[in-house]
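Let's do one together. I've listed all components of the complex below, 1224 residues spread over three lines.
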Amino acid sequence: MSQHPISSDPATVKAHQHAREQNLTTVWERHEAVKPICAFGDLGLCCTICYMGPCRIDPFSAEEIRGACGAGRDTISARNFTRAVAAGTAAHSDHARGICHTLIETGQGKAQGYRVMDLDKLKRVADEHGLKTADVSFADLAVRLGQRLLENFGQSEGSVSFLKRAPKGQQERWERAGVLPRAIDREVVECLHRTHEGVDAEYRSLILQAVRCALADGWGGSMIATELQDVIFGSPRPIRSRVNLGILKKDQVNVVVHGHEPVLSEMLGVAAREPQMLEYARSKGAEGINLSGICCTANEILMRQGFPVAGNFLQQELAISTGAIEMMVVDVQCVMPGLQQMASHFHTKLITTSDKARIPGIEHVPFNEHEALDCARSILKNAADNFVRRNQASVDIPEEVMDLVAGFTAENTFHHLGGTFRSTYRPLNDAIMSGRLRGVVGVVGCNNVRVQHDYNHKTLVEELLRNDVLVVETGCAAIACAKEGWMRPEAAREIAGKGLQEICEVVGIPPVLHMGSCVDNSRILIACTEMVREGGIGEDLSQLPVAAAAVEAMSEKAVAIGLYAVASGITTFFSPAPRVLGSPAVYEYLTQGIEKDFGAHWVFEADPHEVARGIIAHLDQKRTALKLEPMKYQQPLARTA
Amino acid sequence: MTSQPRKIFAISELCTACRSCEIACAVAHSRSASLIGAILEVPLPRYRIEVQAGSTLNLPLNCRHCDEPECLFACKAGAVSKDEATGQVRVDLEKCVGCWMCVMICPYGAVIPDALIGKAAKCDLCENRAEGPACVTSCLTGALFYGTEEEFEEYRNTRPLLKQLKAHR
Amino acid sequence: MHHVIIGNSAAGIGAAEAIRQIDKEAPLTIISDESESAYSRALISYELAGWIGKGNLDLRPREFYQEKNIAAHLGKRAIKIDAGKKQVHLNDGSRVDYDRLLIATGGSPQQMGVPGEDKKGIFGFRNYRDLLNIYDAIITAEHGVVLGGGCIGLQAASGLHHHGVKTSIAIASAHLLSQVADAECGDIYQRLFESNGIAIKTSMKPVEFRGVGQVGSIGFDDGSEMPAQIVISGKGVKPNTELAEGTKIKVDRGIIVDDRMCTAEPDVFAAGDVAVTQDCVTCESTVNAVWPCAYEQGRTAGFNMAGRDRVYDGSMRMNAAEFFRVPLISIGVVKPQGDGYEVHSYLDKSRMVYWKMVFKGKLLVGAVLVGRVERAGVLANLMRKHIDVSSIKGELLAGRYNYALIKPLAEGAE
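Okay, and this is what the predicted structure of the assembly comes out as:
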């Protein structure tokens, strides 16, 4: 692992050096320039909610300081936290809303190029929602399911429909705590209302609303997005691909998609393989079209179509500074406005496509689902036209590239574990019960410039693997470990503990499973629920030997995800901590008190080695409580290399 | 004194009252030397610079390390001394009894009665901190400067924003 | 040029340091009747109260005299000044010649004038010997009474209390701290002391110390009696002006000096608790027997002795103390008598916060701060420099005073 302060990924270090040599500014330089980080903000003690302020609570005052309205540190940090959760939930859920519309329009035949790929899942989800599936055309069913799921956003009665998928025990906890989300939009709105000046001042009541909102994300927006994307674009299957900046090709038209929504990028994927597009690219002197991705849009087209991944969040600008990209197509979330400044130094065309997300100085090409394929073709043509403007002499693509297998889901992963003929979680549960596997941990989330790029993810995962923990990943965390080679099946032999190695070899899976984008964290909820249903390792998510970790967390979405994981009974290790450290009461509730309400808690720990130790202790504690057999192979493998 | 003493200087016009200097000062004078650790310490570390709101400008104010240090004259515990070589005015916390004579006499109000430990807290120029005074390194806008009076004058004259501000008046 | 300083406390040390700042070579002698190297008398109460370790009272490091090239005659009392011969007579028969002389002899506790005052177990609380004597006495004392409710008295009472003596304070005035602050302030501390187990009796004067050889109780003018095996007199001090006898030095309560701290006798200066100076707030001539003034006066005298002209801009009535963790600062006129004053105050009994500001015309002339004393020096500065505060009165009264606020005014005044 590279020891360079900015990144543990050699490709990133090289690309960054190259960018610096050309005097280009990246996220790291900008971050240095805004330092020091404001401590009031960092601790959650700055309140900008009303216009009497901003008010800041001095953390070093021996006396109790309050904002102008009388809100103390607990109220202020709980309000800030609740707003972050609302924003995170809004992001995932608005994404989901778009997919519902796409499904409806697909059913109505209005969405050019789209069709329902996973009919089986369409039927299953429709069944689950009590829709009549017999004697109904798939097109009609798609429309009706889309409409039914859209109700989740604004229904005036009942609660979010997928909540029923959760184990009974957890559903009862939610009911007891009064946090069953009613409708997704409503919970976001209520968060904003309650945190408005002069409404809810009780920190616990605020956090419980944040929980209700977060559940509307995990078991609502995110789950709807995952399920309907599977329905429209097909459920992922294990698929080979390649990752890191080295996948960019010197002799091809490089088109990079970036953001979070697969709706346009799936069509770009279709168009990029059309012979006439390839012909067009060749007419411009290129050998072909190389479509790849960054962030979760990358994960989406990787999971379903096997397109390569250029990098994760902190690599977005460096992809452009290779000088090899003709076109970067961005949609929503995690798209740095700084891309514009970077692109302005190159021939790279940067285009925004979502009407929700524009960047000053950047061409906006509104994406229209009715003409999706035409739109995709036009973008690719545009990119090919741009190929001739590339200055080949200055192109500098780091050579690093890694193979991987992605495409695991709640349905297919343990289908694997069961072998070809048995689609069941039994073998996974057996492996845990017999002490071959210590447990399952979801390592998810972002990159954060405050942390050495990818370092926390990789350090944590390496220790988990050596201690026989099966790791499932999504988002930028997944890309970090893929670059390290841990998503190759051979990696089990190279790094995993003996028990994990045995399981991986028997089933033929890598020790780290790529489960998709960040909305696909809902897949992890489902997988955990299936583990409970299979039996033998706990009656509830909170009893399972599982945990979650987001150790380079950056976005408000990550906070929402962390909170729904905890509220679902999965203890979550999270750093950098959300902005609650300035309030001892809020900190205490999130890291301890919340356990009583939901069976899990947060752990805010910055050192990845400590996180690993904490997770292992947590899994062992759950194993002891379940009276599972001792670990079969106690001694972790010595660290190689 | 052969060379000019190095002091902390403030440019009011550049101070945005973000109070980063206060926080950095408290952290620099904490046992844990980290923000998160510092806010949980008992007793809480005390910052020795205060961003004071004047009628028109903000002034980040800490000990001026006076040539005629009245706090030294007033200290009945003999806890205050002036370093002849560096010009620094020091409080020996071993000797300080918290009689608050210095608080009563300092015309700048720059000696802070730390009620939590019952001793006087004042700027020590972060003398043991390799990077120099924490308030200065934490200042986002360059409103704080550490150096000799001559160096400060030069620094002040090179602040472009300051020229603009002056032109504006 | 031989400088001689009689006195080894704030004023004496202030003068010595000033002289050495200008002249590192001139012979400099300090004479003190106490044998200790420069220590802080003011710290004996802190030591008694256990705030500092025993014997840790050094005002300056022990090497001070050597480093500053000072000849120290410690443990010798100056008994006479022969101004004609420019000589100081010491009690061991020796004589010290001077070119410039500073009298910084301070003050002594006033006699109470109460029968039985010479009994064992009755102490002043002024110097290190008093402290050592008190240490001996508290071993056997069950009850202690402190007579006097000023800062010294209150600190002595806290000290006795700290050592497990059942302590009471008896005062002639109606409230504590009557010389230092006002009745409201006194009441706050009275409740504070009482809640800490120290009884306070007001408006009563001792008429007799009873006991055989050793004091056992005190009889008061209201006929009551209090048991006391130890009595500390916290009464005020009177200037030690005896050396002025036989010279041209004028004495009126204390030694009269000009604005350069020079007495009527050429080349003889006086400073500190022995000197009468002009109060820069009230413009009255008075003895402001407080530490910062003593040092400043000594420093002024020292500069003038060494040939650098320096004018003393006046003393100020000021006091700072802390009792049972509640700090007090009191500056200037705090109990105004007569017309033309404007008084504002604020009291929060539950949090033990009290402040009071006294204005006269456009000037701030006094302040009492209890509980919160931050930035008190800013107020003192406003008073000392006679700064017109009419434009910032609102801020002062709201407690929002700081240097940033007064900076434009202070710079304008200079």
